[in-house]
Amino acid sequence: MGCMRTVGSLFFALLAAQSAIGQQRGVDVRSYEVGIVIPDSGRSVTAWAAITFRRVPSSDDTLRLDLVGLSVDSVREARSGHLLRFAYDGKLLKVLIGGLPDPQDADEEDVAVYYHGLPQDGLLIGSNARGKRRAFADNWPERARYWLPTVDHPSDKAGIDFHVVVPDGWRVVAPGSDEGCRRRRSDARWLCEWHQVAAIPAYTMVIGAGEFTVSKHRPVINGRDTIPIEVWAYPEDSAFADSVPFRRATEIVEAMQRLIAPFPYEKLAHVQSSTKFGGMENSSAIFYAEKPYVERRMGEGVVRHETAHQWFGDAVTERDWPHLWLSEGFATYFDGVIGAALDGDTVLVNSMRANAESYFTSDVTDRPIVDSGYAADPIKLLNANSYPKGAWVLHMLRGTIGDSAFFRT
Ligand SMILES: [Zn+2]
To answer: Could you tell me the distance, in angstroms and rounded to a whole number, from the CA of residue 307 to the centre of ligand 1?
Structure first.
């Protein structure tokens, strides 16, 4: 028990080490609601976003949202529709909220931003590896701001609802529960809606839209809840996806539930996409790079890693980038731990050996595990210090305190 207490205090000290950007901004965003139209051709989008937030004690009368390179048409108080004054320099949208109800009277406030333009990054609209038109968001680490007005930092997690209008024949996937699609009378295009209640980081607030084959794997049972496990792939790659990388998608979640805790979201969709990363752990809608499907070389390791992120990184999120190992170290370690749970301890032994080799042959062996040297450029933290060394720190901790205390902690 003594050891457990030490580990707990260390963990919370790490989480508290950095002041949250939400507090610096004077707000705590509770939820976003986004409506966006994906065009039949071209890459320009029309969108609105409603932001529900609370002011924190240090707040002034300005709501500051990250939004890069788009055109803001108007900003309104969402409930009354009253126009609000704003200033936008192409990077930061400052909305004057002084005229809103006193925070003593109204606990939560809502502002709606109407905007349009051609996202320079973050929302990628174009052709997929099969030559079909599609749209995928790819937000990590701070690229949500290229298409969504957000407090674009992991310290301010929030719920999100998406209302996405797409061409006929497309399907849409996003975090949370599926609210369905319906054909619009006005233009015969489709409106698809998703509802994410639990707070998630802005870097996982994504949509994927295009032509998919969706296959339902055996669901996971969480007490009274049934968690759908789905594989969204391009039609040409669907049979491969089901039979090779995602053959044990359900068993992987069940292993994590036995070891750690119930799955934290309403469903889990594994999505073939055009992400720049091999896999991206978007909350309950994991995106994987499309090429390894097409080349038939995708394996299960990336699925174990990204699934583990649903607990470590998504449900529990680092407050600031220097603590990235809390996300990547855990996901790297639990890739091996899940493998051992499914196929025996040799999997973990081999993965820890590979982790050691990759760390000791890297050029980051002189850096601390909580690495504040790259705060301005989190991409540089995607290195052997955050991943394999992070996994080794956890493996050593487990060796020191024992399995029982480690997994309970
Ligand atoms: Zn990862």
So the answer is: 9
Ligand 1 centroid distance, CA of 280 (Å): 7
Q: In what order do the strands lie in the sheet with 285-289?
A: 213-222, 225-233, 268-273, 285-289, 279-280
Q: How far is the CA of 325 from the centre of ligand 1 (A)?
A: 9
Tell me the sheet residues that pair with 164: 36, 192
**Separation of CA 140 and ligand 1 centre (Å):** 11
* pTM exceeds 0.90, yes or no: yes
Q: CA angle 373-374-375, nearest 5°?
A: 100
Mean pLDDT taken over the chain: 93
pLDDT in tens, 171-182: 999 999 999 999
Rounded to whole angstroms, how far apart are CA atoms 349 and 339?
10
For residue 86, give every residue at least 6 positions away whose Cβ sits within 8 Å of its Cβ, in sequence order, or none: 72, 75, 93, 94, 95, 96
Burial class (CB in 10 A: 0-12, 13-18, 19+), 107: exposed
